[in-house]
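Can anyone check this?
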Amino acid sequence: MNNLYFGVCIAPYRVDFCNYLYDNCNFMIYHQYRYLGKNYDMDDIYAKCKFEERYIKIDKAYNKPYPVGLKKLIDNNKPQIIIVPEFSLLTIFVLFLKFIFNYRFKVISLCDDSYDMICGNDFSKTHRIARKIIPYFLDNLILDNKKTVEWYQNKFGKGLYFPIIADEVRLREEYKKSLPLSNKLNNEYCLVGQKVILFVGRLIPLKNVSTLIRAYSHIKDQARLVIIGKGECEEELRLLDKQLNTDIIFTGFKQGEELYAWYNIADVFVLPSTQEAFGAVTNEALIAGCFCLVSDKAGSNTLIEDGYNGYIINPYSESDMLDKLGIYLLNNRKEKEILLKRNMMQSFFSHYISSLFNSIKKI
C-alpha cells in the first residue's frame, strides 16, 4: 500500500513537504508537469528531492488537458490517503473515481486560498464557484492561513492548518553555505554598512512593486532597495526608479545560492502584493532572519507577529508602508560583515508537520 500525492508541478516551497510525505508517510509523489517556469532550473530543484520524478499522464480534449491512468495508479498503490491540488480537474477526477468504484481512500485537498480570496478577491470565477461545491465531497483540506482555516471550519466543518514553509534546518544550512557569496555581493554593490530592503517575486501588476518604490523614495538615504525578479512591469519599474532617482538594484531572476545570498544581505523584506494566495518568499525571508512587511492580502501574513518579526501592511497605502519601514530602519543597526542572522520564524517545520499528520490520522 502506498498513499498518493498528486501535484501540478514541484516548486521549491513544496520540496520539504513532499520529502516528508515520502520519508515518513509512505507516499508516492506524482506531478502533472515537470517545468515550473522557463526561468527555473528544475534539475536544481529535483536535486533537493528524496523521491523519484513521477508524472501523471496528461491528454487533451478540445484543447484542454486532463489526467489519464488515475484508476491504474490507484489500483496499483491501494492508498488510504490521496492528496490533491485544490479544486482542479485532477481533484474532480479523483473524487469521481472514488464515487463510481466505491473506493475507501480519503481525499485531502492542498488548498492555497488566502482569506482575501475568500472575501472575493479570487484569481478566477471558476475557482470561486468550485470553492462552493467541491469541499463538500472532500474528506478534508490542508490550508495555509489561520483565518482561512476558521472560515472553512465554520462553513464546511473541515480545515487543517499547515502554512507553506520550508524545513528551516535544511534551508539555514543553504544560507550558511551562501555567506561567502553574500559578502562578495555586499562589497560588489557597495552595501557594506548599509541597510538593505528586499523584494523577491515576479514583476507583475498585482505584486504592487511600484508602491514599494514610491514609499522607499522618501527614505532612500537610509537604505538600499534590491528587487529580485523578472516580469512584464520591469521596464516600467526601472523608469520609475530613474524618475525618483532611487538607485534601486535590479538583479533579475535568481534561484538557489544566488537568491539565498541576497536573503543574507537583506535586513527588511517586503511583500506588498494586492493579491497573493500565500507568498512562500515570506517564510524564506523569515528563516534568513529578515524583518518582514507583509501585505494584509497575502496568506503568508499568518506567519507575522506584529512588531516581533514584522508588520502587516495595507498594500494600497504608501504612507503605511513608509511608516513601518521607517520604524524598523530607525531602530536597528547594520553590521559590516554579513553573518547568518537569527531565524525569525515563530514555530518550526517539524512542529507544523507533526501537528498536521496527527490531525490527518483522526480523519
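Reply from J.R.: I decoded it. The chain has a mean pLDDT of 95.
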